[in-house]
Design goal:
The protein is α+β, with helices and mostly antiparallel strands. Helices cover 26% and strands 29% of the residues. The chain contains three helices and nine strands, in the order αββββββββααβ. A hairpin with a 5-residue loop joins β2 (55-60) and β3 (66-70). The protein is rod-shaped.
Length: 184
């Protein structure tokens, strides 16, 4: 009977000891659970090259929470301790158009994104005053032939050609064409 008594008593103590250790270590196990999420990513251009110094702004859709970060020399960024939910991410860098997207973070996870920036479209406006010395002429785009009127032998751009033609083989037609205004 005494052996049964000790086995029962040891069984109670063993169970109590197990419960005590289990409950004592339970808070440490709960610390391993993170109720927050993280956003990690890389900023690159259209060719795949990293973009350092890009400004990343993350704004929560359901609240006024906003976090800002700058990508490092490898174009990487990481924003920790974000509550789970929907976020709007905007990325801007010098010389590139702004990129934006919506992402969803869940509990105890790291959401990875790759941001590809496109070159910024540059728009320039030139205003000309009508009193300037710039004149415009319509450009003929359908023909490669330029038309002009030859008024004198000195204004002809082909004088050197005419001179060569006279030396090698003078013809009456060329001499008359050089002295008479004609349309070419």
């Amino acid at each position: 009977m005494t052996s049964q008594f000790f086995q029962k008593r040891l069984g109670y103590y063993g169970t109590a000891l197990f419960l005590f250790v289990f409950l004592a270590l339970q808070p440490f196990a709960l610390l391993g659970q993170n109720s927050r999420g993280s956003l990690r990513g890389v900023v690159q251009d259209a060719s795949g090259a990293v973009v350092p110094g890009a400004r990343i702004v993350v704004r929560a859709a359901e609240s006024s929470l906003e976090r800002e970060m700058v990508s490092d020399s490898r174009g990487e960024f990481r924003i920790d301790e974000l509550p789970p939910g929907n976020y709007h991410v905007k990325v801007k860098a010098s010389g590139f158009a702004e990129a934006d997207s919506n992402v969803k973070l869940i509990v105890s996870s790291v959401r990875e994104i790759t941001v590809t920036l496109k070159p910024q479209v540059v728009q320039q406006t030139i205003t000309l005053d009508g009193t300037g010395s710039i004149t415009t002429q319509p450009i003929e785009t359908t023909s490669a032939v330029r038309q002009s009127i030859i008024t004198s032998p000195t204004s002809c751009a082909c004088n050197s050609w005419l001179g060569t033609a006279r030396r090698t083989r003078p013809t009456q037609g060329l001499r008359r064409a050089a002295h008479t205004p004609t349309a070419v």
